[in-house]
Every structure is written in structure tokens, then in C-alpha cells.
Design goal:
alpha/beta; TIM Barrel; 10 strands; binds NADP nicotinamide-adenine-dinucleotide phosphate; Aldo/ket_reductase_CS; oxidoreductase activity; oxidoreductase
């Protein structure tokens, strides 16, 4: 009996330590406060996979990898309808809620409306489909993925292979996004890949302000001007492709690779940190939300292990000096559309 009691006490101690670890892990993530008062983790997990169509075993690998990420301490998951994996991401989140590892309000889920659903009547329907796929009753943040609208057949192209536009304005889409907040489907709304002029247009008509603009950002594309504007409007930038998205299908052998940049490596050596950790901390210290993607638990851990050092301002300036306005995400088949964003600024 005494042995049994000792064993029970030991089990309780172990389980208490595990809970503390889990809670500590989630507490370690620095939170930012949006312009509507909502808190959001500054570091999240990207979920875009390089493969366009995912088979069953890839989907089940996503479930496992998101679960591992939650165990590591990630509490912010970046999704999108177009990634075609929201069912798997949702399963991972719901399994972890069912296991008692997290509560729904401890995990922050972002999704995005794709370019074929910009018409006002389609936006709420698109979000409801996402909620259905994720098996959640609400998400925390919904974004307009790109400012331009394509035809309702998202793959329809002209004879030159260019996407067909629908001419729908992002202002119409924004009004529909606001209704999604009013109807309790999402806590916050924002945009992605918008330029300064387009953000100003939204701000003129918004009754609910965007909380973030999610854009490509790394030392080769520091987004200085856009960040200054967003700061002045209390809109956060979220950095996608923070590691330079090395496994993009359209990466070319001759392009500059930020993960191989000697200066990044040199700064890493100084702090005893890896290049990915330097690239992630660079964004965090600039006050930019950052969402590196990894399906590999070791690399997820590495990317999350950025809380025990601070880059000096001098090193941040050095990293900023690498800016070359290199855009890896150009969306060239939409360049002819009226709301294509990347013309009037770097
Ligand atoms: N709004 C938009 O238009 C938009 C566009 C693109 C992306 N996004 C979002 O932003 C997220 C991040 O961008 P991204 O996925 O394109 O690029 P990224 O985060 O810069 O890079 C991800 C790639 O780097 C590898 N990687 C991750 N950690 C690593 C490490 N420590 N060492 C070496 N390699 C590592 C990953 O491979 P493994 O998985 O094998 O580790 C993956 O292939 C996306 O997943 C998506 O959620 C949004």
C-alpha cells in the first residue's frame, strides 16, 4: 500500500511538472497588443507547405507536426484556405484541446480569404467554410490574403496565362470582413500583401481598423517604409517567409539565400545562435510578428528557442543594411490586375 502511495505521489509530481512546463512554454512567448486590445503571440507557426496538393499521408504529417509545435509552446498558428490543410491543422488543435494541453482561448488561429472570394456575399461563406474545416466556432484573426480579386474560378486564365480579374474592390471586401467580426466569426481582421496606398484606402472607410498587414519580410526585404506607416497607424506587420522560404518551388540556384548569408551566420556565432534564430529574433526585436514554418519538430524547437538572448541595436542595424528589396513572392500571374500591390513602393 505504501509503495502504491509513493508511486501515486510520484505520478502527481511528474504530471504537475509537465503542466508547469506546458504553461511556462506558452507564457514564454511574448504577446503583442493589437489596436483593438486583443493580445496575440509575436511568434507563430506558418503552415504553408511547398506542395500544392497534399495527399493523405502528408495531411496526417501536418496533424502530427502541428501537435508537436503546440507541445513545444507555439500558440499562434497561421493558416489559409489556399493552403488546403485547414482540416489537418484544425484536427491537431482540437486534439490538443481534448487532451487538456491547451484551452481554445490559449491558441490564436489566423486564416485568410482567397482572391476568388472577395465579393461581399462570399466572404462570410468562405470564413464559415474555414471554420468548418478547422472545426472551430471562431478564429482569432481573418485576413484578406491579397488585395486583388480574381474571377470566381480561381484558376481561370487568359491566353497569356494571366489570371482573370473580377474588378471587385478590396473596399467591398473589407466591409464584408467587418461583418464577420460583428457576427462573432473572428475576433480581429487584417490584410496581407497590401501597400501603403491600399492601406490608406481601407483606413478611410473602415469602422473596424485592420490589426495587421502580413507581408514578406526578411533582411533582404526589410519593409522599412511600410513598417513606419503601419507603426503610425498602430497596425502590426507580420513577417512571412522570414527564413526566405527556402523550399519554394520557384527558388532559383543563382538567387541570394538569406539562410546562407555570412553576416547572419557571423551574428549567430556571436550569440551562439543559429541563422534561423537570428532571422526570427531580428523581426521580434523590430516589433514585427513572425511566423516561420517548419514541419520538423527539431527545427520547430530551434525556431522557438529565441527568448534567451537579445540582439544589440548595432546588429539589428547591420541586418537591416542587407536590404535589397528582393521579393521572393511576386505573384506574377496577377501583375496586370488593377489592385496588384507591388508597384508603388519597395
Ligand atoms: N500572406 C501570404 O501571402 C503568405 C505567403 C507565404 C507564406 N505565408 C505564411 O508564412 C509562413 C512562413 O513562410 P514560408 O513558409 O514561405 O517560409 P519560411 O518560414 O521563411 O521558411 C520555411 C521553410 O524553411 C524551412 N525551415 C524552417 N525552419 C528551419 C530551420 N531552423 N533551419 C532550416 N530550414 C528551416 C522549412 O522546412 P521544414 O518544414 O522541412 O523545416 C520550410 O521549408 C507560411 O508557412 C505561411 O503560413 C503567407
Amino acid at each position: 500500500m505504501e509503495v502504491f502511495n509513493k508511486f501515486a505521489v510520484l505520478l502527481i509530481i511528474i504530471s504537475l511538472q509537465l503542466t508547469t512546463f506546458t504553461n511556462m512554454a506558452s507564457k514564454l512567448v511574448k504577446m503583442v497588443t493589437f489596436n483593438n486590445g486583443q493580445l496575440y503571440p509575436i511568434l507563430g507557426l506558418g503552415t504553408w507547405q511547398a506542395t500544392a496538393v497534399l495527399n493523405e499521408s502528408q495531411q496526417s504529417a501536418i496533424v502530427d507536426s502541428v501537435k508537436k509545435a503546440i507541445d513545444i509552446g507555439y500558440r499562434h498558428i497561421d493558416c489559409a484556405t489556399i493552403y488546403q490543410n485547414e482540416k489537418s491543422v484544425g484536427k491537431a488543435i482540437n486534439d490538443k484541446i481534448a487532451d487538456g494541453v491547451i484551452k481554445r482561448d490559449e491558441v490564436f488561429v489566423t486564416s485568410k480569404v482567397w482572391n476568388d472570394k472577395h465579393r461581399a456575399e462570399l466572404v462570410e461563406e468562405a470564413l464559415k467554410n474555414t471554420l468548418n474545416d478547422l472545426s472551430l466556432s471562431y478564429i482569432d484573426l481573418y485576413l484578406i490574403h491579397w488585395p486583388f480579386a480574381t474571377s470566381e474560378d480561381p484558376n481561370a486564365t487568359d491566353s497569356e496565362g494571366r489570371l482573370l480579374g473580377s474588378g471587385i474592390s478590396y473596399l467591398e471586401t473589407w466591409k464584408a470582413m467587418e461583418r464577420c467580426v460583428q457576427n462573432g466569426l473572428t475576433k480581429s481582421i487584417g490584410v496581407s500583401n497590401f501597400n501603403i496606398r491600399q492601406l490608406k484606402d481601407i483606413l478611410k472607410i473602415a469602422t473596424i481598423k485592420p490589426v495587421v498587414n502580413q507581408v514578406e519580410c526578411h533582411p533582404y526585404l526589410t519593409q522599412k517604409k511600410l513598417k513606419e506607416f503601419c507603426d503610425s497607424e498602430k497596425i502590426f506587420l507580420t513577417a512571412y517567409g522570414p527564413l526566405g522560404s527556402p523550399k519554394r518551388s520557384w527558388a532559383t540556384p543563382d538567387e541570394s539565400v538569406i539562410l546562407d548569408e555570412p553576416l547572419v551566420k557571423q551574428i549567430g556565432d556571436k550569440y551562439n545562435k543559429t541563422s534561423p534564430q537570428i532571422l526570427i529574433k531580428f523581426q521580434i526585436q523590430r516589433g514585427i510578428i513572425v511566423i516561420p514554418k517548419s514541419s520538423n519538430p527539431e527545427r520547430q524547437k530551434e525556431n522557438f528557442d529565441v527568448w534567451d538572448f537579445e540582439l544589440s541595436q548595432e546588429d539589428i542595424d547591420l541586418l537591416e543594411s542587407l536590404n535589397r528589396n528582393i521579393r521572393y513572392f511576386q505573384f506574377t500571374t496577377a501583375k496586370h490586375l488593377k489592385d496588384y500591390p507591388f508597384f508603388d513602393e519597395a
